[in-house]
Amino acid sequence: MKRLVTFILLFVPLFVFGGEDERIEAILSRMSFEDKVGQLNQLDGRGDIEKLKKEIRAGRLGSVMNIVDPAVLDELQRIAVEESPAGIPLLFARDVVHGFKTVLPIPLGQAASFDEELVERAARNTAAEATECGIRWAFAPMMDIARDPRWGRIAEGFGEDTYLAGRLAAAVVRGYQGESLSDPMSMAACAKHFVGYGAAEGGRDYNTTYIPERQLRDTYFPPFRAAVEAGCASVMSSFNDNDGVPATGNRWLLTDVLRGEWGFDGVVVSDWGSVAGLVPHGAAADKREAAKKCITAGTDMDMSSRSYLLNLRSLVDSGEVPMEVVDEAVRRVLRLKMRLGLFDNPYTRKAATSVLYSEPVLDDACTLAQEATVMLKNEGVLPLTGVRRILVTGPMADAPYDQLGTWTLDGDKTHTLTPITALRELCGDDVEILYEPALTHCRDNSTARFGRLRSLARKADVVLAFVGEEQIMSGEAHSLADLTLQGAQSEMLEVLADCGRPLVTVFMAGRPLIIGREAEISDALLYAWHPGTMGGKAIAEIVIGRANPSGKLPVTFPRCVGQIPMYYNHKHTSHIARGTEGNLDDIPREAVQSVMGHTSSYLDVPPTPLFPFGFGLSYTTFVLSGLELSDTEVTADGVLKVRVTVENSGKVAGTEVVQLYVGRKSASVTRPMKELKGFRRVTLAPAEKRTVEFELPVSELAFCGADMRVAVEPGAYTIMVGTDSRDGLKSRFSIVK
Ligand code: GLC
Asked: Is the distance from CB of 281 to CB of 287 less than 8 angstroms?
């Protein structure tokens, strides 16, 4: 009773009339040291619930992960608010990466949509589903730039391009956080993994990275800065050590850059156990030293390692860690909880009607899966019209679990609409659907059903083969050294190609695979990534022509693993490839040393990718013309307007993604040949024309120069406006002082 009276007399006025900081100080002032350290401790909620309640009751937990039952969460919250010493509400967190119950396409697939608005709307839907189940902190968006498809987590990010990743990460932040974090339907986003995690050597997850500061600032930082500028409430430090320093213990990164340069005032949470991870890294002798380094670096909350809980007392008592450092971390955690409204409404929002799997959510998920699908080849086969009998085959034709993709902890495969189900529903009695999976799953090596497959194929007018990889093959700790199709999938496609029927191959995978042969023998090729709950309907509607594909590759498709890393925005080098190299048959016997010239290329494989960044086909065609720049000279504080006319020169309506690239030949340091600096989805009816205008702030062309300052450098620049990264309409301009 005494505590309640104290609270009412001392704190109610502050809560009612005080500002955020005053309220935080008021709370902080009544917290014991143990209360404070408890706020910096996050644990997994799975396991012994009674033990968890005991920890909460003792005030030793600030956040709980991985419980998604609102009734359980409300009970834990009641204990925290009413029974713990400081009565501070818990923050419930979950990996909500691409959807919650309704699973969206993997982020790499969402990136292929180049549709910020839809990505944001789908993220808002996800927030509605997750908050209905009590989650108020999502460990997403992941925006690690990835140029190596061997790395399984390429699935979770937005691909190889800095600009695209930044735009989409900001869209997810806006979707998750809404107009206000305090909206019970909003949840805190978490920009992860800061930083450079995707540059793991060899594409092996968790491996060492060496990214020099200039490349950090030009390539890896900008998506995180975009998320911070979008108001992202938290950042997660990454597992990797970059140039010898683990990110979780890197003060330059987490304090000087993130907070000092960018003004981030949110919470930095470690990755799972990455505080204690300094010990296996060899950057700390024990958890105590790890805790000291990480709290000092600016990692506020310790996910799952208990290093802070067990060591901060002695570190502060010994003076190795100033109390102010602990207080500042606690302030950030309290500020996040306050902004989420937890001090006013700590319990799960009670939805009048459930949004889980609701029609609008499913419809948006289907549209996003459609826009994510990239058509890589079409020799006049798609859309299927006038066919009477379709053979549907392949291990991904009816794979409700694998279709969802990695990090779908709450996705329920019983809700997945698979291709075979969707095709049967869409085609009804109009078209006969023959079905023979031929392989039980993507690693199935059995060819036992290939005889039946062959006979069915010969009866069909067209064959639809769904191949790819199981969801377990991508995501965390799931790197691959061989990116060709697993099991007998390739043999299956060879059998089908040999049957003399048009072969449409649809890939569902969490990364670019090595698909040169499959592309060669298929008459049409769709890449749907792991498309999520509504993927089957999305693909089926494209195949029968009810939807026109518009996806564009957010990542380069190499011809073979030997080409990796391969990405479009590469440097010039001193020996630029001609593009015609790479055929061993061109090499004469006993050739003299310089017979093949001297270029940055291979003798045995072309220096070009199988499919380039930004590439994707449509059922119609588009023509760009009339490229115009508002100026031929601009200053660093100016805005360059770029106009281009897009025409639908085909026979059906469709959407093109017009892409704006900027490059420069000479600068104080070497620069990429071109970089994406704008994109626009344009939907046009047949014969319709539209002029698209890009407004390019010159400040967005800044880069880290020879003096290590990020600035706009005067000089000559090139502009390219195209429909993929290879070519387009070109022009020039200069930046002048
Ligand atoms: C994992 C992942 C991270 C995730 C966290 C919590 O190890 O690296 O992305 O958010 O742990 O599950």
From this structure: no
Mean pLDDT of 124-133: 98
- What is the rounded CA–CA span in Å between residue 461 and residue 389? 5
The total of other beta-carbon atoms located within 10 Å of residue 502's CB is: 19
Residue nearest to atom 7 of ligand 1 (CA): 272
Residue 545, C-beta contacts closer than 8 angstroms, at least 6 positions apart: 382, 383, 384, 385, 619
Question: If you average pLDDT over residues 628-633, what whole number do you get?
Answer: 98
| Token couple for 414 | 């019983």
Distance from the CA of 601 to the center of ligand 1, in angstroms?
Answer: 38
- Answer yes or no: is pLDDT of 586 > 70: yes
For the record, the structure tokens of 355 come out as: 């949004």
Cα 106 to chain centroid distance, Å, stands at: 7
For the chain, the C-alpha Rg in angstroms (whole number) is 27
Question: pLDDT per residue over 46-72, tens digit each?
Answer: 999 999 999 999 999 999 999 999 999
Q: Over the range 298-337, which residues count as b (16 or more CB within 10 Å of their CB) and which as e?
A: bbbbbbbbbbbbbbbeebbeeeebeeebbeebbbbbbbbb
Q: What is the pLDDT of residue 4?
A: 54
At 595 the pLDDT is 87
Q: Where are the alpha helices (DSSP H) in 102-161?
A: 107-113, 116-132
Tokens 């529903």 — which residue? 425
Give the active site residues: 271
Give one word for 203, left, alpha or beta, with left for phi > 0 and alpha for psi -120 to 50. Answer: left
Mutate to test the pocket of ligand 1, among 95, 234, 239, 304 (most ligand atoms within 8 A of CB): 95
Q: Which strands sit side by side in the sheet containing 389-393, from one edge to the other?
A: 374-378, 524-527, 503-508, 462-468, 389-393, 432-436
Residue ranges around ligand 1 (CB below 6 Å):
95, 139, 192, 271-272, 476
pLDDT at 8: 55
**In this model, does residue 6 exceed pLDDT 90?**
no
Residue 349 has pLDDT above 70, yes or no: yes
* For ligand 1, atom 12: residue with the closest CA: 95
654-663 and 639-648 beta bridge pairing: unpaired
Q: Which atom of ligand 1 is nearest to the CA of 95?
A: 10
Q: How far is Cα 218 from Cα 212, in angstroms, rounded to an integer?
A: 10
Measured in angstroms, how far is the CA atom of residue 106 from the centroid of ligand 1? 16
E-strand stretches of 264-322: 267-269, 302-303
pLDDT at 9: 57
d(CA 102, CA 9) in angstroms, rounded, equals 46
- Please tell me the distance between residue 371's alpha carbon and the centre of ligand 1 in angstroms: 28
Cβ neighbours for 177, distance < 8 A, ≥ 6 positions apart: 127, 186, 187, 188, 189, 231, 232, 233
